[in-house]
Amino acid sequence: MKTLADLRAIKEKAKQELASREQTAKYRLVVAMGTCGIAAGARTVMTAIIDEISKRGITDTIVTQTGCLGYCDQEPLVQVIQPDKSVITYGKITPELARRIVAEHIGKGNVISEQVFMQS
Amino acid sequence: MHRMHVIIAMDPHTIAQGARSIKDALVKNLELAGLSNEIKVVETGSLGIYNKGVVLVVFPDGIYYTGVKIADLSEIISEHLVKGRVVERLHYRDIPEESRAEEKAPRFGKQLRVVLKNAGIIDPESIEEYIAQDGYEAYGKALTEMKPADVLQTVKDSGMLGRGGAFFPTGVKWGFAAAEKAKEKYIICNADEGEPGTFKDRLILEGDPHAVLEGMCLAGYAVGATMGYVYIRGEYYMSIARVRRAIEQARKNGLLGKNIFGSGFSFDIEVREGAGAYICGEETALIESIEGKRGEPRDKPPFPPSVGLWGKPTIVNNVETLATVPQILLKGAAWYKSLGTESTPGTKVFTLVGNINNPGLIEVPLGITLREIIYDIGHGIPNGRGFKLAQLGGTTGGILTSEHLDLPFDLVNLRSIDAGLGSGALLVVDDTHNVVELVQNFAEFFNHESCGKCTMCREGTGRLVELLHKLTSGCGAESDIALIERLASAMMKSAFCGLGQAAPVPILGCLRYFRDEFTALAQQKRQQIPANA
Prior knowledge:
heterodimer; A: alpha+beta; globular; B: alpha/beta; 4 domains; 14 strands
């Protein structure tokens, strides 16, 4: 390496690997677990998701947490992320709805459009 | 790419608990489960968690598991790594607030990690992971955008004090060497950590070796040095191996060698191994040792920044000092000054040992109190015992008692009670221990480690052991206590180097606060030896 730019190139590449919570799985379900999310029941939403995933024996999905997404009044928020597709953010999710997301969106690929808060 | 990272702390402690075989088994099991492509197993340095067996951390969740055995692995894999369900049985909740590794997570409760920011998070054998955490960014910036004098000024402005124990201003020391006109100048990293109960430098070197190298490079640029040496005590096999590997990687990436970053600056680093002499931690004895001579301290002045290794200007800095330097350059002098207290900016790494529930490696901002360290971070004293004393700064450290529990740690406050931060060992002693026996133990250590060059230390340490032994064996008299005091203060005034000058410090400290225990031993009747014994 001869320049600062070379160093930064290595950094960017290595950052990806370090932050590599990237998945080979098809879906990534992100539950917003900021104070607002937790207060609105994100914890039970997440356990419902995990429970439903293991019940259905789904293997191509991982569940991760994130902090406040900035839409506190819409909590609990759940994002479904697929590589090369727009991110679907569901708002005001209950454990029942969470189970439906797993069944419909993850299981069959059908977006539950009436619960979609944002698509980005 | 990997959806999950399992971090396994690999340090002498966890290796002794079987970390190596657990890592191998984990890798094997992941392979068998077909998860090798999804889950990465990463070795790191110490996580600062002790007496809890083998420690694993699972990311992205940041879940800590302690006391992990090979038999637990299949459950961790099937429950957590596959289904994302935490194995509560092994889940360690106590520490996550304190040592949670994720950038965003609130850091550490009362701890503040600057030097240890990467330890236990990155793979110390991967230069890429260090670079990902802003590694070598400060070095690159300094070489391409700053003059050596600017680097020097930043370190001066930060008010940083050397973490080897003497707390001499780092920038001032560098300034002395920078002002010298010489073709060759040297940077030495003093990693001859030999103070009983101190193992912070070892864990810094093992956990984040590149940070130390980067600090040395920056020091080299600031003072105009061409060569650096890391002097590591020979017993620190893993530190030596990791630093050597880091040096190789840095060379391969053009971070050591000639014309670094195209700046015209050339610098290289080599490792020198110590051979186990305590005295070689003293900087001039260390220099003698690198030169291939017997490790004995030199006359001072001249000090090493003017006349050091091979007679050339030489900076000798402690591991922790050097590992902090890149952070100061990256975040600025004002940022560093804002940590800690006015007289002592920054953080300090301590090894918390002795009668404590949660021993280990901690980093705290200065200004913290003994009470916070023992009761909040260390979780108190085991078996419901009371606090008797703490020795701060290694075997030569001053003595703190219950009256000092709420004294904020900084140089001014500690000097006012004849103590100092020293090497960073914090030994907690509960009320079951006899002070005289404790002191005798210290004295024996110094007697063994005195290099023999000056009479006061060679003879003084020996006579102290004899006098203390007299007391503990029931043969002492009160006049012996007075003699101990006289001898101790004479040594402090007349010994040649720090070893002999500091050896009596804990003895006098204990005498000051626990004189009654010495007197009680002196007054007790000699034990009658039965005639038929």
